Amino acid sequence: MLLLTVAILALHAPRALAHGYVSQVLIDGNMYMGNSPGHYEGPSPIRTVTTDGPVQNTSASDLACGVGAGPAQLNAVARPGSVVNITWVSGSGGNWPHEVGPVLTYLTACGNISCVGFNTSGARWFMIAQAGKNADGVGWVQQDIMEGSNFNVTLPDNLAPGGYLLRNEIIGLQNAMTPGGAEFFPSCTQLRVIGNATGVPPTNDTVLLPGAYSATDPSILVDAYTNPNASYVFPGPPIATLMNAPPASAPVSEYYDDWRHDDEQPVMYRGPAGTVVAGDRRSKDFPVFVPMVCRGCKHGKLWQRRLCAYLC
Ligand SMILES: [Cu+2]
Fold this sequence. Notes:
Blueprint: H1 2-11, E1 20-27, E2 30-33, E3 76-78, E4 83-90, E5 103-109, E6 125-131, H2 141-146, E7 151-154, E8 162-172, E9 183-193, E10 206-207, E11 267-270, E12 276-279, E13 289-291, H3 302-311
Parallel strand pairs: 3-9
Antiparallel strand pairs: 1-2, 1-4, 4-7, 5-6, 5-8, 6-10, 8-9, 11-12, 12-13
Bound molecules: copper (II) ion.
């Protein structure tokens, strides 16, 4: 009888529970596939969550990078000013399922060249983009994602080189009129930013996550429907002042130059078909896709020190 009751309850579970995750990220022409929630399918710079469901406790450590997110195996190469193109999808297939609430993007420095293994506990995050309502003041940017658009965010023009976690967060406000109802969907992508810029955010511009949000913030405990024309005040810190600084005076040196004289060795990442592929970055025609197998990071050759340090 108990089993029957459970079965009936399951049948009547609301379908509105569909959620989602980041399936892939495109940076400077390179596509990085993510893993679906709870399923390891291959190396990725996108930290894999264990479920497509939201974080709802603003004090939970999962607020940093999503439910159960652990370190990922790769770092995606980016430059100051790179556009990061992020694809959000539904966990049950198809487009991202929600439309009400902001899309926020943060960075934190991993403190060394690689974010592989970086623990977000105590990390200082700074805001680089806030997307709320569209120009009509009623619809949300998130609605564009639901309708199939990817989300684009531009890295700071003067961002100093190094390892960074990019935290792109959709907040679902569809149930936010009751305490604990807001749904946070953070997703973290490990970046290796190259170049010769010098910008780092003042500590004043950084926050802890969890720490920056409270369940009773007017941007988190909010009825987004009763007055749809109301302007929305973003949670978290303002856009970091780093975003207002001019770009580095000299253009970013080509990544290819960084290792042109090394042994010939393509860079490994995950290709559009979800397979591990490689591009020969010494070619200006990159990406050139060549199937390969990662040779591991233990070897002491120069290319391995430079590449595997952030690829493996
Ligand atoms: Cu959902």
